[in-house]
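Researcher: Here's a chain I'd like modeled. Treat it as a single chain, no partners, no ligands.
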Amino acid sequence: MQSALTNIVYLLAAVLFILGLKGLSSPRTAVRGNRMGAFAMLLAIVATLIDQNIVSYEIIVAGLIVGSAIGLIMALKVEMTGMPQMVALLNGFGGGASLLVAGAALIEAAGGAGAATQAAGIQFAVAISAAGVIGAVTFFGSMIAFGKLQGILPGRPIMFPGQKALNGLLILATIVMTVLLVLDPTNTMYFWIIVGLATLLGITSVIPIGGADMPVVITLLNSYSGLAACATGFVLNNYGLIIAGSLVGASGMI
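Model: Modeled as a single isolated chain. Structure tokens:
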């Protein structure tokens, strides 16, 4: 369970997230708003690491160093004209991270370990499914968007006969598998089938969109990455993830 102090820190981080978003509304305050959002995320991460004894700090620090180095290189190397591609890539990483965390929580619950077992139930299974679907769509859809903007894939719409029917079948199959996972959360195979279906859906949903419309697609995928994080927050019962994910999801939609 999260301590009262941790929840207070999460609340403070949420306020800073909101103020940061407000700061982005003007070029004069955008830099300050960006820094406030970054500081809010730092607070949330530190509070989570102190409150949750999950893995050794050596592994976490190693991940932070590697991730920060990659992010710094990307930020310094990428030209401003390449920012849409970079945003698409980072959106995808966010969705992929939510997907992996949800999968790990499901495996832990299925194995009867830790707090995840206590959380197992309808809410847990629905949140797991949502994180898997949205996370996979976000990751692979963002990779397609990145490829189109970077010139790796053709910028023109890629169409084929029966594309809409295929998307409809993928959505229907995903719903069926989600119901099966809710009925039996211990069967992890359902989750990975959901991820596979959502992967195809993410690809087939973005390839028919032309490169000129990619900024709109990236904005939508940014919203999806927030919703995936929010769903993962319900999986982990983490208020910080729920609040931050909801803010990103709502702002992206708007």
